[in-house]
Design brief:
This protein is mainly α. It has 21 helices and four strands. The strands form two sheets. It has a two-stranded antiparallel sheet. Strands 3-4 form a two-stranded antiparallel ribbon. Helix 7 runs parallel beside helix 14 and helix 9 packs across helix 21.
Length: 475
């Protein structure tokens, strides 16, 4: 069944990842926003760190840090380990360079989409906020139909594509252990399904509490272990960087077969990892209680840096600094990414290595599942154009929970291709929208900079940038 479905999915993926489609939107859009914002990834990097520590304006509101943790929980996940290793195995070491490039320019894209989500966020009866791309598509573009399509793509991506893939990637890391057998994927899938169900049936506040605790801890420990591995293989560092840059600029290989090139794998897995341009993080950004939309835009820009420049690079260096060849891990299903990262770390840290990766993947996968799902219920409400009933919510959560188990026992090719398809559809919908609306985010940035220059703590009013549409928060 999975094989037949995969053929259909793969046929669509092959079309949308042609150079003129998803790659063009991401690269051209990222470059455009980078220049339009005056290289704000560099200019305001320090400011992005400062604003993340600000408290919410109202007691009980979601802080910038809380919104960052929800979006980072989705971004920082199995893609940072399995996705990176897949890119190296199938695209070469140079794929890492292109992941860096897409992350750098993607920071500007992430800033724009999250600032727009803040500008057009909506108010709940209790004073809290919600929103995302569907709302700026509806309110700024006057295209509710496009918001509905985008919301469907979000649910398809996060409840289906990404969560199934996270479950599969988690169980695949246990293949190196002697106890792994034919029934192991089902057992791990069942455990993960039960834990996921306990969390999502507990409510949104619990999502924020769990991710806020786990994400920083797992990120710091993971980077620390990667630094240890890198130091222990310090003699290989010059060769590692040589391999990355030599492969990255092998233009004959890139243009001779773009679909399998290091550029394409870097772009695909970079997108899977940092999600810049997909329109996912703006759903979390809209929840933050801040005095100026730009503050949350800067925070989400920082999230891209944390995800790709720190976590993904940690995985890449941990693998490429060893003497383990990624060519030995090409499999019939594409790439044995879990086997590669575990063999790499095991060659340096011994038996502790594979155990550490399995533990890290368990934490990464679990927070990914939670962060991913947090985007979905709001999209369902937007599609229905009304509050979701308790019965409908329970059914929706039940289906999302079952899909975790399905992903754990599915074929590798099917879950990867489904995720690639889903994320590509989000890009095709979201990036053209923010290209049209980007001037609003740029105007908000100029207003923020003007107030900072005057020594003020920036506070936003829609009239200050001559915004035409009514907003719930910025009057």
């Amino acid at each position: 069944m999975f094989e037949a479905m995969d053929k259909i999915v793969l046929a669509i993926v092959d079309v949308i990842y042609q150079p003129w489609c998803v790659p063009l939107l991401l690269i051209a859009g990222g470059i455009y926003f980078t220049f339009r914002t005056g290289l704000m990834q560099v200019r305001h990097f320090g400011e992005s760190i400062r604003v993340v520590t600000e408290k919410p304006s109202q007691d009980g509101g979601v802080s910038s840090f809380g919104a960052l943790m929800v979006s980072t929980a989705s971004r920082v996940g199995t893609g940072n380990i399995i996705g990176v290793c897949t890119a190296i195995i199938l695209g070469g070491a140079g794929a890492i360079f292109w992941m860096w490039v897409t992350a750098f320019i993607g920071g500007a894209t992430a800033f724009v989409e999250s600032t727009l989500a803040q500008v057009y966020k909506k108010k709940n009866p209790d004073g809290s906020s919600y929103g995302g791309p569907a709302f700026y598509m509806r309110d700024a573009l006057n295209a509710r139909w496009l918001g509905v399509i985008f919301s469907c793509f979000v649910i398809f991506t996060y409840a289906v594509g990404y969560n199934m893939l996270a479950a599969y990637n988690l169980q695949s890391t246990f293949k190196v252990f002697s106890f792994y057998g034919a029934s192991t994927p089902a057992v791990i899938g069942a455990i993960l399904t039960i834990l996921f169900g306990i969390i999502i049936f507990g409510g949104a506040k619990r999502l924020i509490n769990v991710t806020g605790l786990l994400v920083p801890i797992m990120g710091v420990v993971y980077v620390a272990v990667s630094i240890i591995v890198l130091i222990m293989n310090i003699g290989n560092i010059p060769h590692m960087f040589g391999a990355i840059f030599a492969s990255a600029f092998d233009f004959k290989a890139i243009f001779g077969g773009f679909a399998g090139s290091c550029l394409m794998w870097g772009l695909k897995r970079g997108l899977y990892s940092n999600e810049a341009g997909m329109g996912s993080a703006p759903n979390a950004a809209a929840m933050a209680d801040v005095s100026h939309p730009v503050k949350q835009g800067l925070v989400q820009m920082l999230s891209v840096f944390i995800d790709t420049i720190l976590i993904c690079t940690a995985t890449a260096f941990m693998c490429l600094s060893t003497n383990v060849s990624p060519a030995n891990f090409v499999s019939s299903s594409g790439a044995d990414a879990a086997g590669y990262v575990q063999a790499s770390i095991g060659s340096t840290l011994g038996s502790f290595g594979p155990i550490f990766i399995a533990v890290a993947m368990s934490l990464f996968a679990f927070t990914t599942l939670i962060g991913n799902y947090s985007y979905c219920e709001g999209c369902l409400r937007f599609i229905l154009n009304r509050d979701v009933t308790k019965t409908e919510t329970m059914i929706f959560r039940g289906i999302a929970t079952i899909l975790i188990f399905v992903g754990a026992v599915a074929d590798a090719g099917f879950v990867w291709d489904t995720a690639d398809l889903a994320q590509g559809l989000m890009v095709i919908t979201n990036v053209p929208s923010i290209l049209i609306l980007g001037g609003i985010a740029v105007s908000a940035l100029k207003d923020y900079e003007k107030q900072k220059k005057a020594g003020k703590d920036p506070h936003f009013k829609s009239a200050d940038i001559n915004l035409k549409q009514d907003t719930d928060f910025w009057k």
